[in-house]
Task: structure prediction
Amino acid sequence: IDNDERVVQQIKIRLMTWYNEWFLDKTVGVRYDYIFNSNKKVNKNIIVNLIKNQLSNINEINTVNYVNADIDNKNRLITINFDVTINFKRYNEVINLAIR
Result:
């Protein structure tokens, strides 16, 4: 795939990657370990900002319009809803991740 669809796929891959997981660049990925291994409940704004930072690092994204994250700590699930602008078109996607 190419063009905008490639960027949307890149976003999904980036958000499904744990921080420090990819051997070619240990700085890529989301700090899910921070979210789920903390002894206290992590503030939702911190989680949303972690995700926004990842999206902001993708050059082809013009604007991050919206990010929401619903966390289920008990079952270690996270649902990420994001809306971005790529080449003046808006894309809204939902990713469901089971953190094991």
The longest helix spans residues 44-56. Residues 8 and 91 are 8 Å apart (CA to CA). The chain is about 30% helix and 30% strand.
